[in-house]
Amino acid sequence: MPLSPILRGGIHKTLSSGRSNRQSFSAPNSGGEGARSTARTSPSLSAEQIALARQLTGQEGKPVATTARLFGVHRAILYRALPAVAA
Question: What are the contacts of 17-26 at 24+ separation with CB within 8 A?
């Protein structure tokens, strides 16, 4: 269903006014233009937990998914925290 001309005009006016005022459409207090931070940290795991996870996956050979379940986090969080662990 096509947009009505009135609705289309309103959208165009809103977007063009924002562009002319150099406004960012990111969330408030998000840090401005870019929205997402480039550095990702793992706040759900402490340094001690990361060290233990590194020991479990490296020396003891436990799978990352099993180790993640032990800590109650998704395995992607462990892969981010332990960059040396191969998939």
Answer: none
Per-residue tokens: 84: 């040396």
Q: Cα separation of 21 and 37, whole Å? A: 24
Contact 51, 71 (CB under 8 A): no
Indicate the pTM of the whole model. 0.49
pLDDT in tens, the chain (87 residues): 566 766 666 666 766 666 665 655 555 555 555 555 555 554 688 889 999 999 999 888 899 999 999 999 999 999 998 887 655
Domain edges within the chain: 1-37, 40-87
Which residue matches tokens 């006016």?
Answer: 13
